[in-house]
Recover the amino acids of this structure.
């Protein structure tokens, strides 16, 4: 039995609810607003589109042009920055938290910094709360929170998505909660929300009928494909539909009523989904802590991380492929996520010979991710741990 790297439980009842849903988009937006403890939420077709609309809105409030983000995160985040006519600036990561190195952040900021994008990688939340130091550091700089890999995580009693001036997430197939695709923007600020709504009316057009039918068909297929018995049986047929290569553009359109209806129904089980991700990640963290040859991230104090996948670094990069292949052979579809940091994927003007972001490069060359979704049982986790230890 092979365990896929991704998996959100979506049942027949949820799909039927989506097929019969009318006017479900506003209702599901309200659900996400409540879950993120925000006043306002707008749904989009992807997290990438959500980020783009946020940047377009913030441009109306400031003439600044630079957007800071971690050097190791989804390379696709560069696309909306460039589409908005803005300039990406990278900050190295911290090998203890696997998130942005906040100590390095001041050196990245400039008088032209529009926004800082905090990304909660792998489901590990990063604190961006108020403090006198933050007020001095981030003065006149917007704080954007990307919780696409951390929906359901919490820190000091605050759920991810509730930090910063505005936040966004993704409901893409590999995220903590998935409706095949989709995204959401959440904020408490009336000025930002008003501008985002204005940009949404400009960009978020209803997809054509055939496109909506295709989305529904693919979502139903995905709900089957991630189930272990189905994935094991039809793995060779599913493989060609996985993402291949680098994205060079992204589509922009409205979130569909089918996805909203299906999502609203499936979200009644969200607490179970996020709790399983936390418990599975905690099992792996305890089992792999202190093992020679492996580096795992520290779980932030006061946090409940809903792990998107569990990250570990194989300290000797020459052993990484051996460990990864052994995991896959054992029936655990471990992955490597992004094989390079952003500055090695896109030419952003950085000197690649004298690596400006060595920790991001270090992590990218050693990273392995173990699935933590609800279809992963404790016996699968034990098998994964045993395989890693035997393969080192």
């Amino acid at each position: 039995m092979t365990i896929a790297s991704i998996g959100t439980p979506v049942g027949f009842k949820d799909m039927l609810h989506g097929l019969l849903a009318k006017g479900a988009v506003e209702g599901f937006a309200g659900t996400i607003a409540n879950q993120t403890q925000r006043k306002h939420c707008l749904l989009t077709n992807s997290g990438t589109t959500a980020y783009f609309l946020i940047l377009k809105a913030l441009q109306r409030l400031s003439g600044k042009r630079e957007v800071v983000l971690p050097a190791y995160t989804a390379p696709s985040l560069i696309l909306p920055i460039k589409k908005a006519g803005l300039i990406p600036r990278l900050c190295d990561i911290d090998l203890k938290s696997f998130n942005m190195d906040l100590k390095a952040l001041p050196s990245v900021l400039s008088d032209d910094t529009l926004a800082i994008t905090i990304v909660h990688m792998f489901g590990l939340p990063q604190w961006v709360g108020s403090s006198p130091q933050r007020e001095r550091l981030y003065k006149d700089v917007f704080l954007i929170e990307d919780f696409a890999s951390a929906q359901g995580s919490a820190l000091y009693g605050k759920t991810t998505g509730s930090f910063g001036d505005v936040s966004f997430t993704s409901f893409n197939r590999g995220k903590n909660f998935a409706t095949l695709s989709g995204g959401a923007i959440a904020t408490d600020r009336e000025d930002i929300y008003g501008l985002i709504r204005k940009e949404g009316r400009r960009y978020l057009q209803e997809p054509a009928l055939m496109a909506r039918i295709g989305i529904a068909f693919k979502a139903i297929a995905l709900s089957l494909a991630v189930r272990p018995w189905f994935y094991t049986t039809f793995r060779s047929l599913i493989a060609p539909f996985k993402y291949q290569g680098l994205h060079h553009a992204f589509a922009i359109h409205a979130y569909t009523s089918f996805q909203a209806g299906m999502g609203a129904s499936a979200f009644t089980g969200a607490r179970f989904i996020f709790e399983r991700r936390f418990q599975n990640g905690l099992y792996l963290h305890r089992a792999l802590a202190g093992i020679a040859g492996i580096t795992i991230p520290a779980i932030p104090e006061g946090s409940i991380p809903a792990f998107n996948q569990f990250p570990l670094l194989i300290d000797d990069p020459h052993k990484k492929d051996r460990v990864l292949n052994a995991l896959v052979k054992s029936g655990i579809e471990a992955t490597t996520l992004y094989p390079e940091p952003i500055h090695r994927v896109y030419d952003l003007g950085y000197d690649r010979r004298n690596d400006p972001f060595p920790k991001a490069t270090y992590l990218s060359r050693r990273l392995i991710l173990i699935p933590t979704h609800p279809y992963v049982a404790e016996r699968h986790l034990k098998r994964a741990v045993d395989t890693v230890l035997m393969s080192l």
Notes: The longest helix spans residues 270-288.
